[in-house]
């Protein structure tokens, strides 16, 4: 199995649901033998109306105390950081300066309004961060047992696959490719032809992935339909622990980048989501 190098950066908003991200970050730190940097950013653009704005130093002190309470009794190396400013910029800056191997974040929701609260920060971050980002939704009761990798057989998908190998054994990986049938051609013969083409592309993709040479190969699943819809349905049906996606691809599944597929997965997937940006910086 591969491994993430460097410390794990935990992005925390100090909410109760954020405990899930904290527990997963600690579990991964023990798994990889690394440390955790717990970073809380006080957004300098947010005003706590109608109450008077407290001095930044007072808010930072209160946030630090809250983090210390959350980490009381933790048996792993955790460094606490509290900053004031733009959350996306500071998360990226700390990840780069400390050479973090993974950013872990939760997605808190306001159930009354049905809105993602931390989601905006996460969605902006994945557009610019070269560090893989793990969005935690479920309770971290154990290491990941299996993973579903969104795959269009591009180099971006290969980068996502390599990240998945750091978390799940290859025999517990499933590569999932979705394709849209052209126009109204939804007949069985056309679908069969697309499936055959996809299977050939999958075989070539696996052959050109050195990490898989001499080992078992991941399972391949091919389905017709809107990418995020069939991916989420399969993840739900298979009860997978983790869904892994790149932020773009040359063609097919990930061609619409974070603006569509990965963004939909972050919001709607029933499991944790790992988003991996291809390091060449293309969008």
Short description:
It contains 8 helices and 12 strands. It has helices at residues 18-32, 56-70, 87-97, 119-128, 155-165, 188-207, 227-238, 261-268; strands at 8-11, 36-43, 78-85, 102-106, 109-110, 115-116, 133-136, 147-150, 173-179, 219-224, 242-246, 272-276. Strand 8 (147-150), helix 5 and strand 9 form a beta-alpha-beta unit.
Report on this model:
The protein is 36% helix and 21% strand. The two termini are 28 Å apart. The strands form two sheets. A ten-stranded mixed sheet has the order 3-2-1-4-7-12-11-8-9-10, with helices on both faces. The protein has eight helices and twelve strands. It has 283 residues and is of the alpha/beta class. About 7% of the residues have low confidence. The longest helix is centred in the last third of the chain and has 20 residues. It folds into two domains: 129 residues, HUPs (Rossmann fold); 130 residues, HUPs (Rossmann fold, 3-Layer(aba) Sandwich), CATH 3.40.50.
Whole-number count of domains: 2
Q: Give Rg in angstroms.
A: 20 Å
CATH class of the largest domain: Alpha Beta
The fold-level CATH name of the largest domain is: Rossmann fold
Termini distance?
28 Å
Question: Oligomer, anyone?
Answer: single chain
As a percent range, the share of helical residues equals 25-40%
Shape descriptor reads: elongated
Quantity of strands, as a count: 12
Number of helices: 8
Give the ordered list of helices and strands: EHEHEHEEEHEEHEHEHEHE
Order of the strands making up the biggest sheet: 3-2-1-4-7-12-11-8-9-10
Instruction: Please summarize the sheet with the most strands.
Output: 10 strands, mixed
Give unreliable regions as ranges.
109-117, 249-259
CATH homologous superfamily of the largest domain, by name?
HUPs
> Could you report the average pLDDT, rounded to the nearest whole number?
80
Protein name: UspA domain-containing protein
Family: Belongs to the universal stress protein A family.
Organism: Bordetella genomosp. 11
Pfam family, one: Usp
